[in-house]
Amino acid sequence: MKTTTATANAGNLIMTGVVLMLLGDLLFALNDAMGKWLVASFAVGQVLVIRSVGAFIVLGPMILRQGPLALFRVEQKGLQFIRVFMATCDVALFYAAVAYLPLADVMTFYMAGPIYIAALSHFFLGEKIGWRRWLAVLIGFAGVVIALRPSTAMLSLPSLFGLAGSLAFALSLVMSRYLRSTSDTTLVTWQTIAALITGIVLSVGHWQPATLIDWSGMLLLGIVASCAHLLITRSLKLAPASLLAPLQYTLLLWAIVLGYLFFKDIPDAQVIIGATIIVVAGLFIFHRKNLKETVPIEAVPRDGH
């Protein structure tokens, strides 16, 4: 009876992790679109500064709830620093790339994230990846390429920003999984502080006046991004990174939906075919994942978030 209950609880944790990852991806899709709009008119540093201030609108009450001193009581400080560095590089490099490249091109680079994560999870987290799921991840990425049709601009210097940013993003996710005993609030707060400091440095000499709408947009960007980070950070504590990684492909699906709702863009046949391949590959990976390879329920921190 206890075994059955434990198995059910493990399954519930995985499903919760999947749902949180999907919601986080939706918010990241909003973040990407808003970020491209803002960096078209403002320096990356300025956007990072105001974005970070906006993030503390969400993080502030959470920090007070757990106690500010808890931010300094963290495990493995060296790995925490590396994770914060990678998360900061991810954000800065993304905005640097999207300022010069079409959003679809930059998203293509980031869609390679599941491939990096699957490999890193296999070697560093001990999450075994079978050849069928490796093949499904590669097929899913092929679907992204078919749907997004990367342009020749990918051969430019900003494309290196996109590639480096996607690798930094993958590394930060894997480390979030590894450091899952650290509270979500602490993880996201430190990467937000790092982004704020980086933004201040980058904005020196590049600060521009803005309208109320622009300031509001940058603050809202921080709120959306912090919520997305909190959801994804939490999801990685509930389910294996190798299972959640392919769900990043849903960013493409959200891009199609948001494009239609806000810009009346209707996807053509090539985009629909690519999206179908992505969904099928993702569902196959989900089906193949052994639900026993998960975190015991007693090992999940009770943050209350």
What this model shows, in words?
The protein has 305 residues and is mainly α. It is built from 12 helices and no strands. The chain has helices spanning 2-39, 44-66, 77-98, 103-110, 113-125, 131-148, 157-178, 184-203, 212-238, 241-244, 250-263, 269-288. It is globular, with a radius of gyration of 19 Å. The two termini are 30 Å apart. The relative contact order is 0.22. The model is unreliable at 290-305 (pLDDT under 50).
Short recap of the structure:
The chain is mainly alpha-helical.
Outline: globular
Determine the mean pLDDT: 79
| Class by alpha and beta content | mainly alpha
The description of the largest β-sheet is:
none
Elements, N to C (H/E): HHHHHHHHHHHH
Low-pLDDT stretches:
290-305
As a percent range, the share of strand residues is under 5%
Radius of gyration, rounded? 19 Å
Helix content: over 70%
| Gap from first CA to last CA | 30 Å
Separate helix tally: 12
Q: What is the total tally of β strands?
A: 0
Primary descriptors:
305 residues; mainly alpha; 75% helix; globular; disordered C terminus
What order do the helices and strands come in, and which of them pair?
Layout lengths: L1 H38 L4 H23 L10 H22 L4 H8 L2 H13 L5 H18 L8 H22 L5 H20 L8 H27 L2 H4 L5 H14 L5 H20 L17
